[in-house]
Amino acid sequence: MLNRKELDPEESARAAFGARLRRLREERGLTQDELAVQMGCSGSHISAVETGRRSPTRRFSVSADRALGTGDLFERQGRAVWNPAILEGFPEFVAREVKAAEIRIFELGIIPGLLQTPEYAAAITMGAVRRGAITEQQAEERLSLLARRQASLERTPPPLVFVVLDESCIRRPVGGPAVMDAQLDRLYAFAERPSTVLQVAPYDLGERRAFDLPVHLVTLPDRTQFAYAESAQQGRLERDARFVQPLLTAYHQLQAEALSQVASVAVIEQARKGTL
Predict the structure, then answer these.
(1) Same-domain status, 235 and 187
(2) Closest Cα to residue 21, out of 58, 49, 1, 63?
(3) pLDDT in tens, 143-198
(4) pTM of this prediction?
(5) How does DSSP classify residue 7?
(6) Do 182 and 68 share a structural domain?
(7) Contact at 8 Å (CB) between 241 and 259?
(8) Residue 174 sits in the same domain as residue 78
């Protein structure tokens, strides 16, 4: 078939749903139009879901289960799309992050995931569970994905990782004193790696701080560059160089304004001793 778009199920919950729908439809020898008749929708609707251009609704998922005889398979899988543990766009970003030659991160409020200890990550995630923002199962999904991301840093050769932490990251207590002490120790260890740079953007940077939201930038071995940024409810992966390049420029400006790594480690040490 010409111009057939294949989805990577690892990229997002929507992609996984679409890829499975196509596979099971084809296994049963049905065209998109034939399945659409059984589901009470249009063939173009089936196509849009199978290619990730449209998200499946609860009604669509139940209809797919009924038409394909899959019990509640699609209804259960659809929940990851309706109420995702991970923001849209982030799995696609991670698929590139784990292959990146260079990673640049700016974070506000919390230590970025790649640098978190298991205890710190668990405290952050369980806080979301207690607030009702995610379920315990979704918390497990988040922690599992984080573990895979952290493991990718150990590949050979390792990626170059540049991290700028807003001062709020090291001043905000998470999980109690023991968890925070271990987390700050992890930052020391990270700063000592030959392939990393760790800097702190102090509060007195004021309006000179380049970003007001967390930003992740990755450069692949072929020098292709991507940017990922998110708010509380939405994530966006940016592929267009016209928009990625200004973010890289702003990141370099932020690095120039932030404390040096030596000065940053000294600030973290002050926080470790409770003198900050």
Answers:
(1) yes
(2) 49
(3) 988 999 999 999 999 999 999 999 999 999 999 999 999 999 999 999 999 999 99
(4) 0.72
(5) P
(6) no
(7) no
(8) no
